[in-house]
Amino acid sequence: MSTLHVRDSTALQMLTSTLHVRVRTELQILTCTLHVRVSTELQTLTCDLHVRDSTEKKILTSTLHVRDSTALQILTSTLHVRASTALHILTSTLHVHDSTALQILTSTLHVRDSTTLQILTSTLHVRASTALHILTTTFHVRDSTALQILASTLHVRASTALQILTCTLHVRASTALHILKCTLHVRDSTALQILTCNLHVRASTALQILTCTLHVRDSTELHILKCTLHVSASTALQILTSTLHVRASTALQILTCTLHVRDSTALQILKCTHIKVYSTCTC
């Protein structure tokens, strides 16, 4: 080799065609004898011998005992393979767990969380809920950030996102609602509607969550209760007094001022509903 000044690629080609040496043996010869760098030899292997990316990745790890992360870095930087393909090769060829593969992808290739989540769902066909679970567990991303990524990257509806958040991550309904409001900027009425429709929470519980967690005023919440959930005035008033412990006089005032019910009707509703009178307002 040194006497004839033959190029490494030609020498390697001669080695395989003439002596019929296996690919991995010739790769080992190339590194040990000619002291060529791993990246160069891998490039030589694909360009001259037309070996597939997945095969060369397997050869790289099994023959030369290169770590997965380094191999993946070489694969993307040297061969210019896309991150999604690299991740696919990593899971299918080397049988690495999805979470480990994803962790390698972000730490080694410095890919953003949103991109990794998108790659995870599109390339590996993982469900959105599982992807979100991996994102929070493996990368220790906060729930709010994970939910924001889920909604913006995967274009999941707010209701679905909230359902995933409570079912998969076991976050309490109140926290989930708080995250939904602060992160995704959903209105109170929409949040309450999502809470009752998707999570099947009772109207009274939903209303209690809305006032305690989000600190909405009593009059506003009663208005929301009537307009959004289509609860009748009497039921709304009953929920307001029994669940939130509002005094009867205040409840009556809210009923007439906020909902514009006539005084006589309001008083009749108050009498017919049999509302218990509470002295203090504690939520």
Automatic annotation (TrEMBL):
This is Uncharacterized protein. It comes from Sinanodonta woodiana (Chinese pond mussel).
